[in-house]
Amino acid sequence: MAATMLLCGCQTGHHAKADKKTAALNVCIEASSGPEGTSQTVSVLRADPVAVTIDPNPVLTEAGIIAARIIESPGGFAIEVKFDESSTWTLEQFTAANPGRHLVIEGQWGDKPANSRWLAAPLITHRIDNGVLSFTPDASRDEADQLVLGLNNVAKKIQKGLLK
């Protein structure tokens, strides 16, 4: 019986620790170079970096996420993020108004600032009206798992009214 309690205690402790992990997501829109301070150039992709000029004010953040998940894709995986009603409307408006530009996605996970970087810059090819944004991140599977876990924890806290 003591062994059973010890095993249960370890699982509960691990689960509790996983519930505390958080993450952040910023989705910015590609922009033209403007007056100083109105745009920022960021580097996306580590293996073959691409410089993208963005409006530094995110159009979407983790505050509007309902759920995130890893989806399998040919040759790897992608991250799929489902947004709430307000963020769905924002995503639809920005993708409808900016075809041919990029959404530039920054993620932050874990306890160290080094675990924050620009993960993807998918091209806007159509209006996204269902509130679901999918992208292939420049991240390992472990990093993506940590990001998704943290985003889902933040979403649960927001839905419970613990974060504003």
Task: Describe the protein in words.
- Helix content is 31%, strand content 32%.
- With 164 residues, the protein is α+β, with helices and mostly antiparallel strands.
- It has one domain: Gyrase A, domain 2.
- The chain has a four-stranded antiparallel β-sheet with strand order 4-1-7-8. A three-stranded antiparallel β-sheet has the order 5-6-9. A two-stranded antiparallel sheet has the order 2-3.
- The longest helix is centred in the first third of the chain and has 19 residues, at 2-20.
- The radius of gyration is 18 Å and the shape is globular.
- The model is unreliable at 1-14 (pLDDT under 50).
Please summarize what this structure is.
With 164 residues, this protein is α+β, with helices and mostly antiparallel strands.
Strand order of the largest sheet: 4-1-7-8
Q: What is the CATH architecture descriptor? A: 2-Layer Sandwich
Outline? globular
Overall strand count: 9
Number of domains: 1
Gap from first CA to last CA: 43 Å
Question: What series of H and E elements makes up the topology?
Answer: HEEEEEEHEEEH
Question: How much helicity do the residues have?
Answer: 25-40%
CATH T-level fold name = Gyrase A, domain 2
Poorly predicted parts: 1-14
**Helix count from the secondary structure assignment:** 3
